[in-house]
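Researcher: Here's a chain I'd like modeled. Treat it as a single chain, no partners, no ligands.
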Amino acid sequence: MKFVCSKENLLEGINVVQKAVSTKTTLPILEGILIEAGEKIKMTGNDLEIGIECYVDADVREEGSIVLNSRMFGDIVRRLPDSEVYLEVKENNTVAIECENSLFEIRGLSAEGFPELPSIEKSDGIRISQKALKDMIRQTIFAVSTDENRPMLTGSLFENKAGVFTIVSIDGYRLAMRRVVHENSEQTDNVERRLVIPGKTLNEIAKIIQPVDDEMYIYASGNQILFDMGKCIMTSRLLEGEYLNYMSIIPREHETKITVNTKDLQACFERASLVITSEERRYPVRLEISDDIMVITANTEAGNVREEIKVEMEGKKLDISFNHRYFIEALRVIDNEMIDIFFTTNIGPCTIRPLQGDDFAYLILPIRK
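Model: Modeled as a single isolated chain. Structure tokens:
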């Protein structure tokens, strides 16, 4: 195998597939990147849970394949001059990497033992722009549970139904829901799907997809999912089981409603958090709502804080307490200038929604006094 490739293109491919390379394994081949030279260079990483393939433009002079240790290969290429990189596989899987006045020779592994990515048929896919999916993951991933005793909640629900694509995350204390309506719906947009993707997978795919309007496709088969971005694909296992009926969790009625500026409220919560220690459940943030004013207070061993913010209020006066972090993490990802917050009772959940439509909903459980 011989090829010449720009350092920039080579490094871009390495950085993408490294996200699927295992860092904790007893199998050396899983610590490697599979490099295959054909019409283009195809790089593959596979930790047996997540797999990533990426195509890189290069001048291929001799076809072939090799597996190189991901960390070493990546470190070498990062430190090479910004020029053309020449790579050649020699006898006994020795690989020469040359760039200007730098020459490395490292040992590779035969490609025969590298595990293939699962085969997923590219039919009945969900079409969505990369930017939309990246934003939706960012706006819901923080509410994925880390509790392995509830494995279904360690992932996010992807639901595609009647031209609407929805992502939902629930950790038992809060819910984050984001949806988009497919524009100019095609057959692919009307495919009904209900899939639960591990949080680890979503964190990695969010790093790969770009904030651009280019379309990508999501396919599923059996217990596997495939994200197709054109030059790059990512596969992952799905979580198997029944996800919570999230629509039954979101309250339909309320006793108190406020309309407030998103960033102003976020700033109030962030200032209030400055006196809260790591034992946050002992020191909730208290909200007192009356007469178009919301007073936010926190009283801890470290100190006290009082914030006052003007709101538009409808309904009953309210005194309720929350974990400040849950509010901050939701408010940080909301792009709307103004929001509505609906409160059921002083012991029931609150729901953050847009002023119009149902593009998002964030539900937060209060802390009982």
